Amino acid sequence: MLLAIDMGNTQTALGLFDGDELVRSWRMPTDRSFTADEIHMRLLGFFQMYGISLDVVDAIAFAGVVPQLSREWHAVAERIAATTVVVGPQTAAATKLRAARPEQVGADRIANAVAAERFYGAPAIVVDFGTATNIDVIDDEGYYIGGAIAPGIRISMDALTARAAKLASVPLETPEHNIGRDTVECVQVGAVVGAAAMAEGLVARIKRELGTPNATVIATGGLASVVASSSDVFDVVDGQLTIKGICEIYRRMHKIDR
Prior knowledge:
The protein is α/β, with parallel strands linked by helices and 258 residues long. Helices cover 40% and strands 24% of the residues. It has helices at residues 36-49, 67-79, 107-120, 153-163, 183-210, 224-228, 241-257; strands spanning 2-7, 11-18, 21-29, 59-64, 83-86, 124-129, 132-138, 144-151, 216-220, 236-237. The protein has a 5-stranded mixed β-sheet, sandwiched between helices. The protein has a 5-stranded mixed β-sheet with strand order 8-7-6-9-10, sandwiched between helices. β9 (216-220), α6 and β10 (236-237) form a beta-alpha-beta unit. α1 crosses α2 and α3 packs across α7 (241-257). The longest helix has 28 residues, at 183-210. The relative contact order is 0.16.
């Protein structure tokens, strides 16, 4: 089986695949102080939770933005005798990029583009609500061509609460109204509905620039379902899009290497 890993700045998403089937998925904090031993223990705990032996993993595929953790994950992969693939320049043969500087495109964005074309077709626009809110644009030939990066909802909330301590306990939930009735709801409108409105505006501009009004719009990331419930701009909500893309890149590389 393949263990696909998306190492974000805040959280790390993991997915265990048996062929095309996503068998299990987990999330853990991205802690730069984690050692290979700590990662190995967490993996054992996740697998034991569902009565799965770690021995079933014969390959690991990474996409991430934390180099020191990538090294620790490599050490874990070696312990469990797994083949390792890292999404990036070495997987270029399995991906399609038309970016001005391909080497600067984040591995998670590459994985999103691959999964969007593979599962939902092209053209497509992916809005990934993570530490940052990333918008990834895939043209009608399936190439990643660019997008946008904005501060994520939690980053914005952290900045707000750093200057307004009384707002620190506001949960990130979909508000009932677009006009907040109290302070909590006002913050939720600003954070959640505001994120949805930003996505709507950028998606509309991107569609006009691409000349593809029917491009599929996909929401992913940890807060995708919360934001998507405040907007009708999204055609699909797929919280596992990135790890699906990592799995697809691994499969393509495996075929190329044969």
